[in-house]
Amino acid sequence: SLVLDFLRELGDSDGALRAADSALDLCAREASVSPRLKANVLRAKGILLRRLGRTHEAVQAYAQSIALLRSVGAHRSEARTTNALAYAVMVLGRYEDAIALGMSSVALDLSVGGRFQLAKTMAVIGRCYERLGDVSRALAYLARARQAHARYGDQDGRTDTLLVSAEVFSTAGQLEQAAGFLEE
After folding, report:
1. Left (φ > 0), alpha (ψ -120 to 50) or beta: where does 167 sit?
2. 78 in Cβ contact with 108 (< 8 Å)
3. What angle do CA 65, 70, 72 make, to 5 degrees?
4. pLDDT on residue 31
5. Distance (Å, rounded) from C-alpha 16 to C-alpha 12?
């Protein structure tokens, strides 16, 4: 699993896919491997597949991961994977489904007292509303996402949200606000 993550981050997609398949084969052979660990491998493989543009395969990997996480009651990991699934579904243009998945992820996070993942999820929801043409709702979700990023000190995720905010403001013709987010 770690080799998969390292190879993915180093840009060795083929090697990372081989590592994912090797890890999943090991999970199938070894009864002692926890379902949670297998779910984490599936989520990591899904991230890789989505980055490679193989989004339908990523959705399948995320769905399998979520099923395993539900079976062991790993709600925090389930929320994280559900957010990844929401993003992949958004990439496929299924915005209403992505919003529903995002809302599910938020509910899971709140049920376990998680807060850090909320900002990323709200940004995905905001982007979906923008794609559906509901700019005011998109801006409201993005504002909440920016506030959550600031509150929890998530600079990396905040940068993504600022870029999405700039895109939405630009699309809405509010170029001065868009420029402010880009500058920030």
Report:
1. alpha
2. yes
3. 100
4. 87
5. 6
pTM: 0.91
In the chain, what is the straight-line distance between the N-terminal and C-terminal CA atoms, in Å? Answer: 36
Neighbour count for residue 107 (Cβ, 10 Å): 12
CA 106 centroid distance within chain: 12
Q: Which two three-digit tokens encode residue 65?
A: 């991961």
Mean pLDDT computed over 71-76? 94
- Give the tens place of pLDDT for each residue, 104-158: 999 998 888 877 688 999 999 999 999 999 999 999 999 999 998 888 888 878 8
Short-list 2, 3, 98, CA closest to 50: 98
Q: What type of residue sits at position 155?
A: Q
Residue labelled with tokens 């490679």: 52
Residue 151: predicted pLDDT = 87
* CB-count burial class (<10 Å; 0-12, 13-18, 19+) for 76: middle
- For residues 173 and 183, give the distance between their C-alpha atoms in angstroms, rounded to a whole number: 17
